[in-house]
Amino acid sequence: MEIKIKINNKEITAQDGKTILEIAKENNIHIPSLCYHSDLTPKASCRLCLVNIKGINNPQTSCSIIAQDGMEIETNTPELAMLRKTNLELLSAQHKEECPDCVLQYNCQLLKLAKELKADILKFSDRKKDFPLIEFGPSVVFDSSKCIDCRNCVEACANQSVGYLEIENKKGFNQITPSKTKSCIYCGLCITHCPVGALEAKSEFEQVEEPLKNKNKILVFQFAPSIRSSIGEEFEMPQGAIVTDQLVGAIKQLGADYVFDVSCGADFTTFEEAKEMVEKFESGKPSLLMSSCCPAWVRFVEKYYPEFIPNIATSRPPHIILGGLIKTYWAAKEKISPKKIFVVSIMPCVAKKYEITRKEMLFKYNGANFAPVDYVLTTRELAYLLKKRGIDLAKATPQKADNPFGEPSGSGVIYGASGGVMESAIRTATKILGNNGNPVAVDFPKVRGQEGIKVGQVELNGKILNVAAVSGTGNAKIVLEQLKKNPDLYQCVEVMACPGGCIGGGGQPLPQDKQIRQKRAQALYNIDEKKKTRTAFDNPDLKKIYKDFLKNEKIIKQICHTEYKNPKS
Amino acid sequence: MENFIEQLKQSGLLGRSGSNFPVWKKWEAVKGAVSVKKFVICNASEGEPDVFKDAFILENYLPEVINGVKIAIGEVGASTAYIYLNKNFYQKFKQKIINLIDNSPIELFEKPNGYLAGEETAILNAIEGKRIEPRIKPPFPTEKGLWSQPTLINNVETFYWINKIAKGEYNHNRFYCISGETTNKGVFELPENYTIEQILKETKNYPTKPLDYFYQIGGGGAGEIMLDNELNQPIKGLASIAIFSKKTDLMALLMKWADFFGNENCDQCVPCREGFYRIKEILQQVQGKICENDKQTLQEIFDVLEKTSLCPFGRTAYKPFKSALEKLF
After folding, report:
1. Contact A90 B278 (CB under 8 A)
2. Average of per-residue pLDDT across B136-153
3. DSSP letter string over A484-530?
4. How far is B168 from chain A (nearest CA, A)?
């Protein structure tokens, strides 16, 4: 149904059920707002998005009021400006300004609003100046001296069915605080939903240059599938801009000796996962197989649904497999001692910082223990590092990623979007099984898009496989509860902890919302569509490495598989 | 009883929690709402400092109040009614209420601690077991209240008068609380259109030297400060009068309010959470006279409290500060 309203005397037709702020945004009418996030329910806590509605006494928050037919709304009056200014000044006084090293430095809504509203953000002393820094494991840091108490992070965490962030009364104030009993899964959605940069990846900024200090080592960078369509945003490029080759050029300019594409690692993960799928499938009784590339999801299962640990695929995540191959196959080929290689993964994710610390990711080779990956930088951290070194991605000389890990299949690229891992595995599994000699379908649109739970059926050699691609652990909880009641509901489940998959990851550029995530995802599918090789199984480099190096089950297990057990901590 | 809401409308009864909201409008909204379940809540949380009229009514007229609740259940078609009692009332009146319930679907609920737990949407959260803090309005409780069902919430005194209206005995009186530096403190039933001066005189509380006193009208927390020359008007909000000698330590009084509101607000929205903190900070820094700059800042904070707070708490709690600063400094 449609309604007609007036904003600042302008007639506007809008869909029924939307808030005034949403309608204003759609019509390019600016209303200052800070705590609003389209992923979340309105908190109406910042009290900045005030408007006057004819017939109602006091100003109302436009984020929380559903527009009604015939409403007459004013967004700009001297009184509203004054009220917003005062509220912003009060709000800023609980936020310690440390602008030089802030995740939002180039996109700070607080500073933009201060300028717009002519607010003196230093009018009051910082109420929280002595508030502590709180670390969530090896992944996230909460600087409580910057928190404006909007509670967006609390909702984002609750939506994940984690609830690690709670509200506790301390010294007369209800404050956000980590739970003493629950476990953080390190997804970083608190970071992506914080309007003021109070949450960031651990060591974000302070230590971005660490990897470059390894001067006596061979410095190898590898970048995740989803980075290529997101990092451009940090350099004023359009949302969803594909920057694969500029990215390689820019990283080389930083001083990396080699740059590889994690999408190639994804092809190996796909192949191994597809084999697990086929194995279960051919065993006659296809039991449940769940994806394992998302460390926050794996941790969610370990902490909250340990009974499902045996269902997690043992195939290692793409950057872990690739790191392993770099330090073994490639090192031997290039005659470099693996100990001299320093591998840096550029990831859309803060949980990957935790993942590389897991002992399950280490591998044994020729009698020695190795970590496949030595360091993780998030997309934001890499962008910051490039900017710090004066490198503009938009102007970087395009270069191809180095061989033999520079030419992935299309499957490896769509790994960055929710459903991509599933689609890749299906493509390869159908190929392996041969589909009774019939042509093999490549596209599985049912598992694409921004929906939280996507389900479909796949026909493998005449047998039906029920699959689900899930994003967000809150949605995963729904599916796991269904599976508890009906174990045969799905045979394959892919889960990524972040909305829309890695393109909406906790380490990705800010801001992000559903539209931005869709553009980033679409770009990956566009790359896939143009690839000559779209199935991991067909990747010639992969075939060669299986022929030359991953020749037996023992070495495959060492490099490509791990085991998840019920962890004690 | 057929036209009870019409009767209510004719009576002109306003919410006795101090909201002054026409009672019939809430009743009509809940009665007219289409829903399988509807709820009635009797707010017996009385937590405002210097206000003790509901305690008096429960002590003396409990059957009338419960009967008022029963009338509401029948009139709006409620499935359950809750009597929401503060801890003290719960202990004192629990058994007496149970004896009065008969077969009516009435349940008792013990209010958790905290001033804000008496705010109508915070009550909904309390009963639902959620975090006790006000909800964003709209939606109003009459549309989406307890468990998202239409819910009628009225105060103890309101239900008392409902019973009177149903019996045709409503005399347009209300219950006034008088406290402070006077000898004849207590609760008094007098006409609602009496001026403050009339009330004080009638109850033998009018000071012999009126110019030496000031008054807080409408509650010991959020009430407004009035001087002797302002007493020629009836009370609009909560019916409470606290009498103060002008020898009162004003800064201590302001700090008491600032502490109270700073502690009791829910910290959801900026004006309350930060506003009261800054009011207190400014008051602490004041040496003798409050300078113009501070007055300006305080006025800005009062404005956002009054006009932009999320719930009625902030929208009224600025009043004692603002009126005291204007009239006593």
Report:
1. yes
2. 97
3. HH-TTS-SEEEEESSTTSGGG-TTS-SS--HHHHHHHHHHHHHHHHH
4. 35
Q: pLDDT for A29-79, tens place per residue?
A: 999 999 999 999 999 999 999 999 999 999 999 999 999 999 999 999 999
Q: DSSP state, A327?
A: I
Q: Under CATH, which architecture does the A210-560 domain have?
A: 3-Layer(aba) Sandwich (3.40)
Point out the residue among B268, B270, B307 whose CB comes nearest to the CB of A90. Answer: B270
Quote the pLDDT of residue A567: 61
Say which amino acid occupies B325.
Answer: L
Contacts of A214 (CB under 8 A, 6+ apart): A342
Beta-carbon separation of A149 and B278 below 8 A: no
What does the pLDDT look like over A209-239, one tens digit per residue?
A: 888 888 899 999 999 999 999 999 999 999 9
pLDDT recorded at residue A437? 74
Give the Cα-Cα-Cα angle A379, A507, A534 (nearest 5 degrees): 65
CB–CB of A75/A7 below 8 Å?
A: yes
* Segment B223-232 mean pLDDT: 97
- Helix segments in B131-269, DSSP class H: 156-166, 196-202, 250-264
Chain A nearest-CA distance from B46, in A, is 22
Nearest residue in chain B measured CA to CA from A94: B274
Within 8 A of B148 by CB-CB distance, chain A residues are none
Q: What is the pLDDT of residue B1?
A: 47
Q: Chain B: residue nearest A83 by CA?
A: B304
Q: Which of B136, B301, B303 sits opposite A44 (nearest CB)?
A: B136
Contact A82 B273 (CB under 8 A): no
| HEC profile of B233-253 | CCCCCCCEEEEEECCCCHHHH
> Domain A2-76 carries which CATH code?
3.10.20.740
Q: In this predicted complex, what is the ipTM?
A: 0.95
pLDDT tier for residue B2 given thresholds of 50, 70 and 90 = low
Among the CATH numbers 3.40.190.10, 3.40.1280.10, 3.30.70.20, 3.40.50.2300, which is that of A92-201?
3.30.70.20
Q: A42 to chain B: which residues are within 8 Å by CB?
A: 136
Residues in A touching B301 (Cβ below 8 Å)? 86, 90
In chain B the domains, ranked by start, together with CATH numbers, are 4-166 (3.40.50.11540), 173-245 (3.10.20.600), 253-328 (1.20.1440.230)
pLDDT tens-digit series, residues B171-201: 999 999 999 999 999 999 999 999 999 999 9
The reported pLDDT for the residue numbered B3 is 85
Name the residue with tokens 């103060």.
B244
Residues of chain A predicted below pLDDT 50: 569
Nearest-by-Cβ selection for A174 from B266, B275, B301: B266
* In chain A, where the domains are located: 2-76, 92-201, 210-560
DSSP A328: I
